Amino acid sequence: MRMGRFYGVGVGPGDPELLTVKALRVLGEVDVICAPRTGDGKEGIALSIIGSALKKGCRVITPLFPMTRDEEVVRAHVQEAVDQVLAELERGRDVAFVTLGDPLFYSTYIYVLEGLGRVRGLEIETIPGVTSISACLAGLNKPLVGRGESLAILPAAYGLERLERLKEDADVIILLKVSRRFREIVDRLGELGLREDALFVSGCSTGEFRSAPLEEMAGQEVSYLSMIIIRRRR
Questions:
Q1: Helix, coil or strand: residue 35
Q2: Average pLDDT of each block of 10 consecutive residues along the chain (234 residues)?
Q3: Strands 226-231 and 198-202, how do they pair?
């Protein structure tokens, strides 16, 4: 029996109309969808985006990827996901792993790709998607960087230690994964003199788009689908 083919499919930031033509074709052809979830019983956002694109009878598996920085816990769940996907591939079924945004940009797909990349003879194809950054900029109708400008992207949930250096080196800084440490981030940006330059953006392409100067958001709770864009005034 032939080994199935494995796809990593970026489903974009939330609007189903931002799925690429290629993503729609693959999602409509594969036998199995792998859609990670972050909590027991909670459907992942990626799966909710692609609902109508799946072919009749398509099997859906939803491995758990808990929101934690404990590497041992992460590795254990990644291995479970790899084992689930591999079992389907070995039955000759084509599998698509779906993820928000782009599969190779801060995505759970990266872990699974590394695990399956060691499987001899397995065909793997990664299909890019629209990132949340691109969607937010489109919602704002503002450019990200222009000629000669530099850009830094920092996952704020994993530490703000590099911010002081980036303040001097980058013209534009984007902070992702800001929800869990939002108040701390707002305070730190104030200490560095960056708060007045910062724009809060949330819910890009989900129907709940919101943007506001960061200073207006101080003390508020924000959603997971949020980011901060800092454009330095020189």
A1: coil
A2: 94 94 97 86 79 89 83 87 96 96 95 92 96 94 91 88 88 93 93 94 87 90 91 76
A3: antiparallel
Domain boundaries, the chain: 6-127, 132-231
Q: What is the pLDDT of residue 71?
A: 82
6-127 and 132-231: identical CATH topology: no
What's the CATH fold of domain 132-231?
Answer: 3.30.950
Biggest alpha carbon–alpha carbon distance for the chain: 62
The structure's pTM equals: 0.90
What CATH number should be reported for the domain whose range is 6-127?
3.40.1010.10
Question: 211: which 2 tokens?
Answer: 């943007």
Task: State in Å, rounded, how far the first CA of the chain is from the last one.
Answer: 62
In angstroms, rounded to a whole number, what is the distance separating the alpha carbons of residues 58 and 29? 9
- Strand 124-127 and strand 151-155: the pairing is unpaired
DSSP state of 81: H
Helix and strand numbers (H, E) in the chain are 7, 10
Token reading at 147: 């000629």
pLDDT at 193: 93
Look up residue 140 and give its two tokens.
Answer: 């704002």
For the record, the structure tokens of 182 come out as: 């939002």
Residue at token pair 């002081």: 164
